[in-house]
Write a structure and sequence with these properties.
Structural class: mainly alpha
Strand content: under 5%
Oligomer: single chain
Radius of gyration: 25 Å
Number of strands: 0
Shape: elongated
Low-confidence stretches: 1-11, 13-22
Largest sheet: none
Length: 244
């Protein structure tokens, strides 16, 4: 028996019975994290180049390359990940349909067992299971057993597009911050803008996750500051050494 997903009375061994989290919150959280990645990676790149040269063209080229490369990488990674999730969801739906066709009575007993686990009396659980089965047998079992609905199977294309868009929006912020100010102020302005943006994404991520924002904000700001300081120091050392 799977310890993470205990078997319900009349259930199938090792079959998970879990409730889904809010799809909307998951999308929002993924968007915030994608934007955060765009901010940190692009900011570190352009600040590193700015530490090595004061010329605008190399900074702009590096920033655009980082933005495009990062957005494509995020999209590909999300597409592969969500495609695997979608295939798993489809496999579970097909398996459930086969089980319902092969042994409907056992499936009805399993459904009633799940509702007994949720606190209903055996009689009420059986009645609920029967009424839901009459209404839409597949939907009843998918939702109760797997926390899944057929119309909520994830789309890898949508996930890839959303991830790329979030990364791009995040990456544009440090790119504009380092290109628009005068050369002598561009690094300090970029530091300030990026750390403020990271504080906002850290706060948003914490609130979406239902946790207190203090520590998440501190972690993401300190991590971003460390990334910027490291790349700027490397760029400055390359400039001083005459390598670039």
């Amino acid at each position: 028996m799977n310890e993470a997903f205990p078997e319900a009375p009349g259930g199938h061994p090792a079959e998970p019975h879990a409730s889904t989290m809010s799809g909307r919150l998951n999308w929002l959280r993924a968007g915030v994290l994608g934007a955060n990645d765009g901010i940190v990676s692009t900011a570190a790149l352009v600040v590193g180049v700015a530490g090595a040269t004061a010329q605008t063209a190399p900074i702009f080229a590096a920033g655009i390359a980082g933005l495009v490369g990062g957005a494509v990488s995020m999209a590909l990674g999300e597409y592969v990940s969500v495609s695997s999730q979608r295939d798993s969801q489809r496999a579970m739906i097909s398996k459930e349909r086969r089980e319902l066709a092969d042994d409907p009575e056992a499936e009805l007993a399993e459904l009633a067992g799940l509702y007994r686990q949720r606190g209903l009396s055996p009689e009420t659980a059986r009645r609920v299971a029967e009424e839901l089965t009459e209404h839409d047998v597949v939907a009843a079992h998918l939702e109760a057993e797997l926390g899944l609905r057929e119309d909520e199977v994830v789309s890898p294309w949508a996930a890839a597009g959303a991830s790329a868009l979030a990364f791009t929006i995040g990456a544009l912020l440090p790119l504009l911050a380092i290109l628009l100010p005068p050369a002598e102020a561009r690094v300090s302005v970029t530091f300030a803008v990026v750390l403020a943006a990271l504080a906002l994404t850290g706060y948003s991520s914490a609130r979406l996750g239902g946790s207190a924002p203090g520590r998440p904000v501190l972690r993401v700001v300190l991590g971003g500051a460390l990334a910027l300081l490291t790349t700027f120091t490397v760029g400055s050392l390359l400039d001083v050494s005459g390598i670039v």
